[in-house]
Structures are given as structure tokens and as C-alpha cells.
Specification:
Strand content: 15-25%
Shape: elongated
Strand order of the largest sheet: 6-7-11-10
Number of helices: 8
Radius of gyration: 35 Å
Largest sheet: 4 strands, mixed
Order of helices and strands: HHHHHEHEEEEEEHEEEEH
Structural class: alpha+beta
């Protein structure tokens, strides 16, 4: 079924007020009125203009049409599966009426507002629009378990029948064990329904804010710990950060670069507990080396008789 864009038919913007819509209708109705315009397609255009005005001048029908308009922007219209026909049909020809009278509206109009004839049905309820947005989350927020404030907006039709964006703020509790990129649903937190219908849902895609110190591997945190050569060789106790505090990490003697030391329950929350923090060892050379330092390194080199590349043959 061909989609009819009533705003385009009247030549008005979707945010047009009642006065603008009425002015556009009067101008086009006079232009295409069959008693004035004798062109072949004038009567069809007059009916189309009258149909568009019948919908857009009525705030309830306009709100219902705006809700369904998203299904027809590609040029074809298929009502959503749960749509059972319209709520507000009653004939209104406006300021100009065809001398023949009783002209029908289109199949598109019927598919939205249901049935034909001069009767008025009770307004039909329709679910509000679902809203999708991203929620940026700091790793510290995941550990603290505190609610996260989010602000978003959705389109709505106000009491005057005009389209406007409504802002909404919510406190969202982040589920334990959530992963970056996962999607959560908040039922009934989307746009309000039409004529008392249930509200739409809010869908949040979780996006972890990159941390300056930690990397993430599932529910584990990865922390690169730089050590000087003598710390790796002799062992040491170093202070390392976590998401909640600082703790002492014991470095065993002869620790190799790339080794991973585990700090239990210092990672991200899981559905049943707490992940771990893995400290990944990186050996770094001193940035400044004196002649005396070089002599000591040479003395150390002369005392070591091991070739770490011997397996190369």
C-alpha cells in the first residue's frame, strides 16, 4: 500500500501549527475544488488534500498518524502487526465541500483509522515509541554499584497538537556482571502511549568509558606494572592502584617480564561475585645511566653465564 505523507501533500513541515495547516488546506482546496478547477485530476487532488487536513487538524488523529509515520517513510506502508485500525474516524470536509458529497477517503486512511462512514469510535490505545540510547559507564561506577543518572529526549505531541521534544531524567541501576556493549531494557520508560496506551520501552546500550590505567578482559582488570631490573631480579613490594583503593603487591624474586600476578576480587563485579585484577609485569631500564652504573652492569654481565637465546641453535 502506498504511504501518504499528509505533511507533504499540504506542503507544510511536520512541526507546523494549526494555523499554518489550515491556511495551506484552504489554499489547496480552493485550487483543486472541482467546481473551480476542471483539470482531469483536480477532484482526486481535492480529495487527497481534504483527507490530509482531516487528519492533521485533529490533534488525536495527528498524534496517531505521527506514531505510525515511521513505518512508511520508504514510500510503502505496512501497519505494525498489532495495529487493529483507527480510533478517530469521522468525516469532516473543512471549509470546502465537494458538490457531489460523500467522497471516500483512501485505503491508506482506512488502514490507519479503520472503517468508513459517518460514525465516531472511541479513541484506540496505542503503545508509545521505544527509545534507544547509549549509556557511558565508568569502571568505578560498576564497582560502587551506585545508580547512574541518564538524560534523554523523545518526540511527543503537546496539548496544542504541536510536535516537541520532551526531556526525561532517570536513575539507572547497572546490573552486576554487565559487559561492554550489552543492551538492557527498561520497560515503560520510553515515550508515552497514545490515548492512554502503555508507554514504550527504553533500551540502553552500555559503553564502558576507557580507563587511563586499566584494561578489561571479561570481568578481570588488567594492570601493567613497570619494574626496574633489580626489582624483578631480587623481588620487591610495590604499591599498585585498584578501582577502590591502593594495595601492596609482592613481587617474587626472578620475576620474568610478561608474568601475571593475581589480586583476587579486585576486578569488576560478576553476577555471582567479583572478578580479579591481573598485574602484568613489564621490566623497564633506568632512563639515566652514569659511567659508574655502566661499570656495575658490565660486572654483572661478566658474572652471568646464561644465554637466553640458546634454543635458537
Amino acid at each position: 500500500m502506498e504511504f501518504k505523507d499528509y505533511y507533504q501533500i499540504l506542503g507544510v513541515d511536520e512541526t507546523a501549527d494549526d494555523k499554518t495547516i489550515k491556511t495551506a488546506y484552504r489554499r489547496l482546496a480552493r485550487k483543486y475544488h472541482p467546481d473551480i478547477n476542471k483539470e482531469k485530476d483536480a477532484e482526486d487532488k481535492f480529495k487527497e488534500v481534504a483527507e490530509a487536513y482531516d487528519v492533521l487538524k485533529d490533534k488525536e488523529k495527528r498524534a496517531e498518524y505521527d506514531q505510525l509515520r515511521q513505518y512508511g517513510r520508504s514510500g510503502q506502508f505496512e501497519p505494525p502487526p498489532d495495529w487493529q485500525g483507527g480510533a478517530h474516524f469521522y468525516r469532516s470536509a473543512g471549509d470546502y465541500s465537494h458538490s457531489g458529497g460523500n467522497e471516500d477517503f483512501s485505503d491508506f486512511f482506512e488502514s490507519i483509522f479503520g472503517g468508513r462512514g459517518g460514525f465516531h469510535q472511541e479513541p484506540r490505545q496505542h503503545k508509545g515509541q521505544d527509545i534507544e540510547t547509549e549509556l557511558g559507564v565508568f569502571l568505578e561506577d560498576l564497582v560502587k554499584g551506585q545508580p547512574k543518572a541518564i538524560q534523554f529526549s523523545y518526540p511527543a505531541i503537546n496539548a496544542q497538537g504541536h510536535r516537541e521534544n520532551i526531556s526525561k531524567t532517570l536513575e539507572v541501576k547497572i546490573p552486576k556482571g554487565i559487559q561492554d556493549g550489552e543492551r538492557i531494557r527498561l520497560r515503560g520508560q520510553g515515550a508515552p502511549g497514545v490515548n492512554g496506551g502503555e508507554s514504550g520501552d527504553l533500551y540502553l546500550t552500555i559503553k564502558f568509558v576507557p580507563h587511563p590505567v586499566f584494561d578489561i578482559e571479561k570481568n578481570q582488570l588488567m594492570l601493567t606494572v613497570p619494574l626496574l631490573p633489580h626489582e624483578a631480579a631480587l623481588g620487591a613490594k610495590v604499591i599498585v592502584p585498584t578501582l577502590t583503593d591502593k594495595v601492596q603487591l609482592s613481587i617474587p624474586p626472578n620475576t620474568q617480564a610478561g608474568s601475571k600476578l593475581r589480586l583476587k576480587a579486585k576486578g569488576l563485579p560478576t553476577k555471582t561475585g567479583q572478578g580479579d585484577l591481573l598485574a602484568v609485569i613489564r621490566v623497564v631500564m633506568p632512563s639515566i645511566m652514569t659511567e659508574q652504573d655502566k661499570a656495575l652492569w658490565q660486572k654483572l654481565a661478566d658474572s652471568i653465564h646464561e644465554n637466553p637465546r640458546s634454543e635458537w641453535g
